[in-house]
Amino acid sequence: MIKKFILPCFLFSAFLATAQENLVQYVKPIIGTSKMGHTYPGATVPFGAVQLSPETDTLSYEVNGKYNGDVYKYCAGYKYEDKTIVGFSHTHFSGTGHSDLGDFLIMPTQGKLQLNPGTADNPNSGYRSAYSHANETAEAGYYKVKLDDHNITAELTSTNRVGMHQYTFPKSDQSHIILDLMAGIYNYEDKTVWTYVRVVNDTLITGYRQTNGWARTRTVYFAMSFSKPFKNYGRKSYDAKQAYRGFWGKFNQDQNFPEIAGKKIKIFFDFDTNEGEQIKIKFALSPVSQENALQNMRTEISGWDFNQVKAQAQSTWNKELNKIQVTTSKDNKINFYTALYHAFINPTTYTDVNGEYKGLDQNVHKADGFTNYTTFSLWDTYRALHPFFNIIQPGRSNDMVKSMLAHYDQSSLHMLPIWSHYANDNWCMSGYHSVSVIADAIIKGTYNGDANKALDACVVTAKHRDYEGIGYYMDKGYIPAERSGVSVSNTLEYAYDDWAIAQLAKKLNRKDVYDEFIKRSQNWRNNYDTASGFMRPKLADGTFKKAFDPKDTEGQGFIEGNSWNYSFFVPHDPTSLIEVMGGKKKFAARLDSLFSMHLPDEFFAHTEDITREGIIGGYVHGNEPAHHVAYLYNWTDEVYKGQAQIRHILNMQYKPTADGLGGNDDCGQMSAWYMFSAMGFYPVAPGADVYSLGSPLVNKAVVNLENNKTFTVEALNQSAKNVYVQKVMLNGKEITNHSIKHSDITNGGKLTFYMNAKPKK
């Protein structure tokens, strides 16, 4: 007799829970491309070195020698409101509030050759083209658009280090592909230091480009291969007249000359095309050499099957997206998986396939046993993105910490990264938040290197006296307002970072370091004015600055925020903050005021990145300093108010539309906040092994951990109105302290929220 094989119920359930779903369908890269999101819609793979995406204008960083405020709208190169596309470049930041990159812009055209991009008002004056969102597709790992003025369909996909283009041309004996080596984001007259191009044969070009911008010593090498030989090629140089050019004038370098060099160069390649003919391009990048770029190309894309590369990119994305499987409404799924997609864009790979990369010392290094990463927007991402990686991407988190320590070893200043990309530190924003990321990774067990060496690097960085007021901070316990325009926020952020160092020292039994830095972590008290109840600039003589407005963001001692938001920035010691603010009842009332106040229009006069869409009352979600604030209700007797505010933020600040982000996504920080909060918990103080509980948005989330265990979050009686938590059970045992530990997640298990429309007071 044939026996039927029946899976036991618990095994069958586990199989269903971990089976891959088609989650790519919920990713909408167009979210955040309008207004302040500053995301891009183009093709990349998880943590990919290539970000191949359209540019919609060519604004200069400066006009008449002064900063051009409109350039801020183009941090990601693409602005949803624009009507024209100028081409497709290979490097982009996702969601930042400052920019660089936009390297190697390619534009397919047909008809009379034009090497000027033209203007948005008169696109026919150049090679740019009108387009319609109706003929545009943006998916994870794939982008497609019809270039109306040229009747060309452009398609983009990528691997880690190689961008792949597919252009479908009309019949023409004047089809062209332009390689604009002058184009860039946050561009200006002298940004390109030098460009070199070598035409190897009629299908292969290699070269490099050096730029001086946000990163002041950045060199990117490339290899570019065509699927079809070009019939003719040439260049146009826009270089100013030089005093000495050697004897290269003996050649006609403008037509079919195989070696091209200069600061301002555009190259064109001519083709004859039949109706519907496709010309494909593989464009590989390397931080090290042309040879490595070519090796990257040949390793990652050996043939010319565009659809196969696209399928591979989307399969890679689907595997990563399935690390969390949520049950919720369709719109919430779109928001969640687009957030997960945005969280997995940065940091970016900064090693070639052979493990080589260029370090801060401008020497070539080899990553031994790890992948080297770059694009660390740490002022933003230490708060939630890196803690998120310690749960969802612990292997990559380990490599990211190793990358930071390699940065430290190669730094002439012996400092951990502040905001680093492409073997540079651009020193943007405040704090030394690498120490938070490192401490969090070691305390949560995701870093497997020398922890004591890592602590030493944290201490040396935190004692770099000539960096942004650290000397004053060490001597006085605060930074005098006369010495820094962001004196208060720097003091507050240093104090938190010092607490993170102390937690790491405590774990490693380094008592001397612990004692020193736990004392420094209390320096926030030196900027707290008990008379006004606000964090306030203090002068060198120890008195508070007289002219003070806690709502103002200009000249008050804060970066990207005001005192109303920054006065709550003591994430490492809420209990003491509540005490100095008058106790739990007064503190809760103060939180109420933050979320309910009205900000006058003058508040927006000095901010280019915050509009009313990113604000609830006076709470600024579109900037990061207050991201933990709604969770501070957990330290009061009115926890339910925090639950209501968290759900309000989730629904108001995140929407499945182009303008669906209330502020810059900031390399995934806004997205990480969403995912943590949608699952019902958040890391208020990274460096602690606990997460504060909130009000989950999803019905269910299954987290598939790298250790092959699963952690399930379940919200019973979930609905749009049922935002209040009645009780929380962890593996059947009730939680009463509004928090869970990191090990509760990594050990696997179930967290169950019981939801209701009425608050539990």
UniProtKB/TrEMBL annotation:
Q: Which residues form the Glycosyl hydrolase family domain?
A: 292-756
Q: Which GO terms describe its molecular function?
A: carbohydrate binding; peptide-N4-(N-acetyl-beta-glucosaminyl)asparagine amidase activity
- Keyword Hydrolase: yes or no? yes
Give the domain of life. Answer: Bacteria
Instruction: Report the SUPFAM superfamilies cross-referenced here.
Output: Six-hairpin glycosidases (SSF48208)
Q: Which residues form the signal peptide?
A: 1-19
Task: List required co-factors.
Answer: Ca(2+)
Task: Give a single Pfam family match.
Answer: Glyco_hydro_92N
Q: In Gene Ontology terms, what is a biological process of this protein?
A: carbohydrate metabolic process
Keyword presence, Hydrolase? yes
User: Keywords, A to Z?
Assistant: Calcium, Hydrolase, Signal
Q: Where in this chain does the record put each Glycosyl hydrolase family 92 N-terminal domain? A: 26-286
Can you list the GO cellular component terms from the UniProt entry?
Answer: cytosol
**How does the record describe its quaternary structure?**
Monomer.
- Specify the protein name: Glycoside hydrolase family 92 protein
What high-level taxonomic lineage is stated for the organism?
A: Bacteria, Pseudomonadati, Bacteroidota, Sphingobacteriia, Sphingobacteriales
